[in-house]
Task: structure prediction
Amino acid sequence: MTTTVTWDVESVASELLAVRGTPGREPFTDEWPDLDVATGYQVQDLNLARRLARGERLVGVKLGLTSRAKQQRMGIDSPFVAWLTDDMVLPTGAPVPQAKLIHPRNRAPRSSSSWASGWRAQA
Result:
């Protein structure tokens, strides 16, 4: 018997933290086809608040889909933004632990800690 899970912001946020370091998790959109960008940002905000509450520090930001051509192909009109905490940082020269990543990709990141320097988490 197959169990159907009904996802919401809270349950997706909890699942993402629970599967950290466990590769192979299928995208949530496979199980929640109506998941939209605004809801994805709510999940991200909740998990950032949880990470900060457990003592992680905000250290930077990651931008995704910065190419206008790629944005047009994906049907979006602005880059995606994701916050980075100190727990996500690897020492210079350390290998990327791809076996622990959910959906590893090899590409050069574009991050800026300067964006995060003035940002403050809101409780």
Summary: The first strand starts at residue 58 and ends at 64.
